[in-house]
């Protein structure tokens, strides 16, 4: 049996993970040994810390980790080092998964859920964001202090070293080689020193991929172009914070944040797989959450960590089919389609397998 660590997390996390595990078991019966681990708010409640050492160890010993979502208002007033999000960052860093792959593709049956003008959407939207995941402000020094004048102040440091930029750039160029061969590197090189280094290193790496065309955009302009001409993007590579922000934007361009999976990879194939959405505490426990992002994250896990692309295809096709049948959870519902619950969506997908 292949060992997979499973982090259900908080809020809607356990619901969407439950759905994904059932789908995986149906697509690849008796292949996986799923081991559930505590991380996030639930771990704070139970063990007094967001990422108990034992939890990280289980993930590090597994062949892959599947994660729902963590966080919620209950833990919002915790000190920073004891917040659920810190547990998530600890898992990402502890697994060394520096490359976060977030595909943004319009599902044809969901075209009506795309908020962009029809002539823009009709040109086709199919790009992937490669977000650096274990560096930048997220992992720089965080500090709250008092100035000599007695005023409260704070700082968070954005830092990247050359090897961190180089390795994520390689991931992006390699991905582009299997796609339309366009890399857009997004930075803020008109202001940030980090971005100027980023640009230099990305340009350097580009020399090893002469077939790929590279362009650079400032992040503010990129956020605009993603809405104006989304069809022109193929592979986007960017640092941690910019990638966090732009991938939420991308999720709306293709219809819903509930639909997008992500794979986070490092130097080996021991990946971390999660939907890009959060724990949505407002709808938790109401069977409203769209499980598709997590189900597709499970498909990415089959593909990247286990080389099971046939089974991954099956899951992705099943998702396409239920969408074609007009079945919709609330987040992707539009007039003329059929509104169903999260568990009905799960069952519909399983029935197609
Ligand atoms: C994401 C999320 C996380 C992040 C949060 C929950 C810490 O927004 O995966 O995009 O900022 O990375
Ligand atoms: Mg985010």
Structure explained in plain terms:
The protein has 353 residues and is α/β, with parallel strands linked by helices. 41% of the residues lie in helices and 20% in strands. It contains twelve helices and 14 strands. The strands form three sheets. It has a ten-stranded mixed beta sheet, sandwiched between helices. A two-stranded antiparallel sheet has the order 6-7. β11 and β12 (272-275) form a beta hairpin. α10 runs antiparallel to α11 and α11 packs across α12. The two termini are 21 Å apart. The structure holds 3-isopropylmalic acid and magnesium ion (MG). 3-isopropylmalic acid (IPM) binds at residues 71, 85, 88, 244, 276, 278. Residues 71, 85, 88, 244, 276, 278 line the site of 3-isopropylmalic acid (IPM).
What secondary-structure arrangement, pairings included, does this model have?
Blueprint: E1 2-9, H1 13-27, E2 32-36, H2 41-47, H3 53-61, E3 64-69, H4 84-95, E4 99-105, H5 118-121, E5 126-132, E6 142-146, E7 152-156, H6 162-177, E8 182-187, H7 193-206, E9 213-218, H8 219-228, E10 235-238, H9 240-253, E11 261-265, E12 272-275, H10 292-306, H11 309-324, E13 327-328, E14 338-339, H12 342-352
Parallel strand pairs: 1-2, 1-3, 3-12, 5-10, 8-9, 8-10, 13-14
Antiparallel strand pairs: 4-5, 4-11, 6-7, 11-12
Helix pairs in contact: 1-10, 1-12, 6-7, 8-9, 10-11, 11-12
């Amino acid at each position: 049996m292949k060992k997979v660590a499973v982090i259900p997390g908080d809020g809607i996390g356990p619901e969407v993970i439950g759905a994904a595990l059932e789908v995986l078991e149906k697509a690849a019966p008796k292949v996986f040994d799923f081991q559930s681990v505590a991380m996030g708010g639930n771990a704070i409640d139970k063990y007094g810390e967001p990422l108990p050492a034992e939890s990280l160890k289980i993930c590090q010993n597994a062949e892959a980790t599947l994660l729902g979502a963590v966080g919620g208002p209950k833990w919002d007033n915790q000190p920073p080092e004891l917040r659920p999000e810190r547990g998530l960052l600890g898992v990402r860093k502890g697994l060394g998964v520096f490359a976060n792959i977030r595909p943004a593709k319009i599902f044809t049956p969901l075209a009506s859920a795309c908020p962009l003008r029809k002539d823009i959407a009709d040109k086709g939207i199919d790009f992937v964001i490669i977000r650096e995941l274990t560096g930048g402000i997220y992992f720089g020094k965080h500090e709250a202090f008092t100035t000599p004048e007695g005023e409260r102040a704070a700082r968070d440091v954005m830092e990247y070293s050359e090897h961190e930029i180089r390795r994520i750039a390689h991931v992006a160029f390699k991905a582009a080689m299997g796609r339309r061969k366009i890399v857009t590197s997004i930075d803020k090189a008109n202001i940030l020193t980090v971005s100027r280094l980023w640009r230099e290193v990305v340009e350097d790496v580009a020399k090893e991929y002469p077939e790929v065309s590279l362009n650079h955009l400032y992040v503010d302009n990129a956020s605009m172009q993603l809405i104006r001409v989304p069809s022109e993007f193929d592979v986007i590579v960017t640092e941690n914070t910019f990638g966090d922000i732009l991938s939420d934007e991308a999720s709306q361009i293709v219809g819903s944040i509930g639909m997008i999976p992500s794979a986070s990879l490092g130097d080996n194939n021991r990946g971390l797989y999660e939907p890009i959405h959060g724990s949505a505490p407002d709808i938790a426990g109401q069977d409203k959450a769209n499980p598709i992002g997590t189900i597709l994250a499970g498909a990415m896990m089959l593909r990247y960590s286990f080389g099971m692309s046939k089974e991954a295809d099956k899951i992705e096709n099943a998702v396409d089919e239920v969408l074609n049948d007009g079945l919709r959870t609330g987040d992707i519902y539009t007039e003329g389609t059929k509104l169903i619950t999260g568990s009905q969506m799960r069952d519909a997908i399983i029935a197609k397998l």
